[in-house]
Structure formats: C-alpha cells, structure tokens
Design a protein that fits this description.
mainly alpha, 13 helices, about 0% strand
C-alpha cells in the first residue's frame, strides 16, 4: 500500500493547522470584542461578522479557477501571505466602520487559501489513499478548533487584551506561510488548464445538489460557532465554557476521523455522510432542547462526531464527481456551499436573536439541520450515486 504520511502531506497539514488556529483564535471572541469595544448590538454583530464569510464565498469560485489554471504553489503562497497580513490590519481598526471593512476584506484571502491548501493536499496524496487522506487532513482543522478557542479565551481572561490576540494570530499565520513555502510539488501536478471559460470552471455544476445540501449544515454551524459564547453567558450563565465546548466538539471530530478512516478507505462515502448527519441532528437538538450544562457539553461531542463523519464524506463526494483538472473547482464548490450556509447562519442568527432571542435562533438551527438531513435521504444520496465519476 502506498505511503499516506509523506513529508509534503505533513507539511500541508501543519500549514492548515496554523491557518485555522489563527482563524479560531478570534472567532469565538469577536462578538464580545465588537460589543465591548464598539457597543455593537446583536444584529450589527451578525452583519459585521457575516461580511467575512460573504467575501470568502465570492472569491472561492475564482480561487478554484486559479488553482486549476496556474501553478498551485504560487497561488497558495500569495493567498496565504495576504491572509496573514490582514491580521495586522485589525490593530489599525479604530472605528466600527474600519473594522467592518478590514474584516470583510479578510474573507477574500481566507477563501482562496483554504481552496489552494486543500487542493495541494490532494496533489501530494497517493491516489489509492485519497479518500482516507482527505479525511485525516481535516484533523488539522479539528485540532486547531480544539486548542485555539480555549487558548484565546485563556489569554483574554488573563490579559483582557484583544491586540495581543491579533498579534498572535498574525504570527501563527506567518508560521503557516513559511511551512507551505517548503512544500514540493511535482511538475505533473501544476495545472495549465486551457479549457474555454464557462460556469463549470467556477462551480462544479455536476455536484450542485450536494453543494446545496451542504448549505443547510453550514447554516447550523455558523449560528452555533459565532453566538455560542454570548448564548452561554447570557442564557445559561456559563462564563468560561466556550473553550471547553470547542474542545469537546473537536474531540468528537477527531474521534470520528479515526473511526471513519476505514469506511473512507473503502469508499463508503454515503454511509459516512448519513451516519454523521444523524449524529449531528441529535447534537443540535440536544443543545437547545436541554439547556443545561450536561446538554451544552454533550451536544458539543455529538456535533463534533457528526460533522467529522459528514464533512470528509461530502468533500469526497464532490471530488468524485470531478475530473482530475477540476479538483480545485470541486474543492471550492463544497467550500462555497459551506460559506453560503455559514454566512446566512451568522446573519440570520443575529437577526433572529435580536428580535426573538437566542433560544429561537437555536431552535431554528435544529429545524434547518433536520431539513438538510431529509434532503440528503430523499434526493442527494441518489443524485451522487448517479453522477460519480471516480
């Protein structure tokens, strides 16, 4: 069997860990930052934070095109450098308007670098271990999610200094850029795609329903990840539990990747997706239906387990419906779908919370998740099986 853990694959995973560590260092605390620093209301917070996701969404289709059409390492390093530099921009944001502009623009390089880095990861994987490798690649995201929010909340509780967090995020992202600069790609993995430009260059039309289905799940995590800290503090009275919640969620994600590795290696994508969605549904429902410490923390583990099974299965489904020279487009398509859901979740979550309260917002999450599960079993599963290429 071909070697999975080769040197370049490990480097790309390390860079991905740094990327998401920097990202999650700020994610759970930005709503508090906006409220404490600029006295922003719930709906304004939702509007400001959704801009990041919207910009990432807008740039992802072009990211897939560039990754498939130009030297991938060059595209990756340019995008990663821009992603790192924007963290320094937060230090100069002296007003809510300026912060909104910088935060919104920052979504662009984030959208590009996540597409480029995951596509390079596929390139350095042996074809016989691709499904399994993509699943394990997500562990770097999960480890970052486990450690980063807890670390950020600890730093904030000790120093109450958001500038320090911005500097740390900048330094960690720069480290990831340096690691990616040492990755070696074979010449055959550098694309020079000369097909005529069409919609399929920016969005994998063959996988449209899988992408649409992913929107529902992105919505749920968008609401949860961005309003978790405020909900825990204001509704449940949990002041220091956000980091623990993310850590438990990440433990679930990691366990699911280890448990689901064999199924991915065997190509049982639809099985992994179905199992993950059902576990997540139980987790989201438990979170809002049982608003206690037990429900709060148990939901984290279940949502992590569920998403850890579902995400690599959906990503592999999308890639399995793409030709070799469409890998970047396939990656950008599934990430676009997640971003659309995340953006809608952040925006709508803030609006619903402002008008009806956080309880209503999280009941909406449970309903949207259930709708996504129903769509998969009724349509998406058979849709994929009919269009699978490899």
């Amino acid at each position: 069997m071909e070697r999975l853990w080769n040197k370049n694959y490990c480097k790309v995973m390390t860079a991905n860990f740094a990327l998401f560590f920097a990202f999650y260092l700020l994610t759970p605390l930005l709503p508090l930052y906006l409220h404490e620093t600029f006295d922003a209301t719930k709906d304004v917070i939702g509007l400001v934070l959704s801009g990041y996701t919207i910009t990432a969404l807008l740039l992802r289709p072009f990211s897939g095109y560039f990754v498939d059409s130009f030297p991938r390492k060059t595209v990756l390093l340019i995008a990663y450098a821009a992603f790192a530099i924007f963290f320094a921009g937060y230090l100069a944001a002296s007003s809510l308007l300026l912060f909104t502009i910088i935060r919104t623009l920052h979504g662009g390089p984030f959208g590009a670098v996540t597409v480029a880095n995951s596509t390079v990861a596929i390139d350095v994987l042996p074809s016989s271990r691709r499904n399994e490798g993509i699943g394990y690649y997500g562990l770097s995201n999960n480890l970052a999610m486990a450690i980063s929010p807890t670390f950020a909340i600890f730093i904030y509780s000790q120093f109450h200094n958001f500038e320090l967090l911005f500097w740390l995020a900048f330094a960690i992202a720069t480290f990831g850029l340096i690691v990616d600069a040492t990755v070696t790609l074979e010449n055959k993995q550098v694309m020079n795609n000369k097909r005529a430009i069409s919609l399929d260059r920016f969005f994998l039309k063959r996988g449209w329903l899988i992408g649409f289905n992913m929107v529902f799940f992105g919505f749920c995590f968008g609401v949860l990840s961005n309003y978790l800290a405020i909900y825990g503090k204001q509704v449940l009275g949990i002041t220091g539990g956000t980091g623990t919640w993310f850590m438990l969620c990440s433990i679930g994600l990691i366990l699911s990747r280890l448990q689901g590795g064999k199924a991915l290696r065997q190509g049982r994508l639809t099985h992994n997706a179905a199992e993950g969605m059902l576990i997540s549904l139980v987790g989201y429902t438990l979170f809002i239906a049982y608003p206690t410490m037990t429900g709060y923390y148990c939901s984290a583990l279940l949502i992590g387990l569920g998403n850890g099974h579902m995400w690599p299965a959906f990503q592999n489904m999308m890639i399995s419906m793409a030709h070799h020279n469409e890998r970047g487009t396939a990656n950008s398509t599934i990430l676009i779908s997640w971003d659309v859901g995340m953006g809608l979740g952040i925006l709508m979550g803030g609006i619903i919370a402002e008008n009806f309260g956080y309880t209503a917002a999280f009941w909406t999450v449970a309903a949207v998740n259930a709708t996504g599960v129903a769509l998969y079993f009724l349509k998406s599963q058979s849709f994929f099986l009919q269009r699978q290429i490899n």
